[in-house]
């Protein structure tokens, strides 16, 4: 097994013990009585919380009196707490309560308050923790403990089709920014209690919730432990997107290739979990990380598994071919045009020479110019506001295509090459894997223009060697092609029909190798027997 | 052990295929044809014979001393000091072969494709690339070789397009001068199989080592015969006067008015094959040097050794014709000695020592 073990780093309690990364922080935190107990004097407790949340206009203190005698305070943060719920289910019953009732917090929870989730809190740190997660804190006079009531409610985006991964067939809902919605989507697909969702908080200031999802008994225990330990090692101010985590836990931080899969689709995530991989869900982003992955994972689309296997297999071959083309095509063109004209058949050579006649630049400059402007157009296309999109596409098409050729600045074959390259890089289902290949073609163009085909091949060898050194959580990046295992080809080079995919991928799913019962090939006469 | 990486026997087999053929397929048809005339395509028979003997010896030695390289078990077999001397010879042989390989590689590139590029640039670029790969370990070499092998094999299959131009009459008459010219033409480059003595210890399934090596040997012999036959049937007696007959083959292809002038494909397979050959040889040289010096890790040697390899390649031969003379005259004996004779002696001594442990000292003096 190739999972690299770094369990010496692993320590379950690292999170609690870890030192703060700013010394100043420690001092400022010392002033706040974070970890002192609540006292039995209400005013003092409210004052302390007020000090901690000084100049925080969104924290609301609602003073009222229960049964005409006991003073109480409701503290909550406006916007992330359900105000209507507080009025209806907490304040209203308390105001109407009889004198004779028992007003100790635990009794309140049992008898008076109609709230699904409530917890007793006795320390200020707990109060702050719950407040920031949208709970309402109820403090009573003469009580050294309060109640945290689960009234969290904030604005959520509706479920939409994922923008970056579209498909014709398959589920149309994507993850959203809300962590709990995302985990609920996973739970809705995988109902087994073996789907484990471990939560941890990362980020000194953001305290972002992160969920580590895996299926117990399928994901290898050492892999889960490795991911967990790498997550626990993170010490950072804030985590705003899963990209932060990706860069902090990947194996080869300098590589241009993404070593974790990011996906917006619950079906892709579930499929990965069922193959023994681990998913990392981050609060505040619809992009979920999946590890470990190989280069072939990057080239598989969700739809491959939903349509007929012949079509999927041929689509995959097309995709492989064009992903290699997106890396090498302009470089091959430059090399052939600069050094190896004899490779081109005679009649084609004549027409290419005719189209290049008026072009004042060498092929290298021409290629570089066109590729850079294509990249610029692509980047502008991503950033620009929707209203000006039409303008850019018209200008881009005109400038890069028609006008440049007519002006004699570039040759028509070069425009074709650049267009094919650009389109083929978008055939890669994972956008960022495609970007890596697209960026690597620039060094290849330079090599091809200096050493011709020789330089190009040396460059390709260098890229292959680099990819062979890559590992994603111990799994070799090119695993199934660089270590030939025949059973792996069923889901890399081909897409075998489902009745043939009886085993999980051998690099991630060895704990529970068999995926389904064999001999499920449907036959016409099976029903009669 | 020099490293923790492990490769599978199949990977070793795949890696050895371009390693064995890389330089040889391009140069040896000429030399073989000079010795054996129209019978040189029969050399494959002797290659197979001697190759199997070499593989048998090396896998047998590996079985006697598992998890050890040639450098390590030779110390156990003939004692520390004689082994150090012997291994210095091998180290020198590896460096010399590496130098010769990259020189041949660079001479072909500058002689047929990049006429005005300084040869040093070609030499340094491949050594640098190989050095980076070697530093990553045997696993990375094996994995990249596995991925690159199709680039080595596919151009060879394209030579099938020559079929309409082949003339079977060039092959006749068979063995008109007897078998001796064929033996002379064999050239012994199959002795390069000695490198598996440094790869077998890192196999994850050592019991399949022999099977994989024999598989590779068969593939190498079949491919070699295929190339030799193509050269013979297309060029006939002219094979012996061409410097690179396979290059002529690739240029000759003309099919359907589209597949023409495919020498660029030859360049692709040449670079890929030479890269794998250099990387494997380079790795073996680094490991043997580290073990010669009793060091734990070979990685710190890799770049300095690369400098030495480039220098060796320039020192070895003043020019291409001197290189040709060397390969015709001295090379077979060098290969015979390092590939067959020394391992055979080591095996015999090892077997004798196994049988009669009390007569150890006698055996050592015998050698």
For CATH, the homologous superfamily of chain B is named as: Amino acid/polyamine transporter I
Structural class of chain B: mainly alpha
Number of strands of chain B: 2
Order of helices and strands of chain B: HHHHHHHHHHHEEHHHHH
Largest sheet of chain A: 5 strands, antiparallel
Helix percent of chain B reads: over 70%
What's the CATH architecture of chain B? Answer: Up-down Bundle
Helix content of chain A: 40-55%
Using DSSP, what is the number of strands of chain A? 12
Strand content of chain B: under 5%
Round the Cα radius of gyration of chain A to an integer and report it: 30 Å
Based on CA inertia axes, which overall geometry of chain B fits? globular
Radius of gyration of chain B: 21 Å
**How do the SSEs of chain A run, as a string of H and E?**
HHHEEHHEHEEHEEHHEHEEHHHHHHHEEH
Mean pLDDT of chain B: 86
Q: What is the 3D form of chain A?
A: elongated
Describe the structure in your own words.
The complex is a heterodimer of chains A (529) and B (367). Chain A contains 18 helices and twelve strands. Chain A folds into three domains: 32-149, no CATH class; 179-293, no CATH class; 311-476, no CATH class. In chain A, the strands form three sheets. Chain A has a five-stranded antiparallel β-sheet with strand order 1-2-4-5-3, sandwiched between helices. Chain A is elongated. Chain A is of the alpha+beta class and 529 residues long. The two termini of chain B are 27 Å apart. Chain B has 367 residues and is mainly α. Chain B is globular. Chain B has helices at residues 9-21, 24-36, 43-64, 70-78, 80-112, 119-136, 138-158, 180-185, 196-199, 209-235, 245-252, 263-292, 302-316, 320-329, 331-355, 360-366; strands at residues 254-255, 259-260. The chains are: A alpha+beta (529), B mainly alpha (367). The A-B interface holds A 336, 339-340, 342-343, 345, 451-454, 457-458, 461-462, 464-465, 468-469, 476, 478, 481-484 and B 8, 10-11, 14, 109, 113-114, 117, 121-122, 125-126, 129, 132-133, 136, 139-140, 142-144, 146-148, 151, 257-258, 260-264, 267-268, 271-272, 275. Chain A: Keywords: Membrane, Transmembrane, Transmembrane helix. Chain A: Residues 12-35, 509-529 are annotated as: Disordered. Chain A: The chain crosses the membrane at residues 317-339, 388-405, 411-432, 444-467. Chain A: Residues 509-521 have a biased composition (Polar residues).
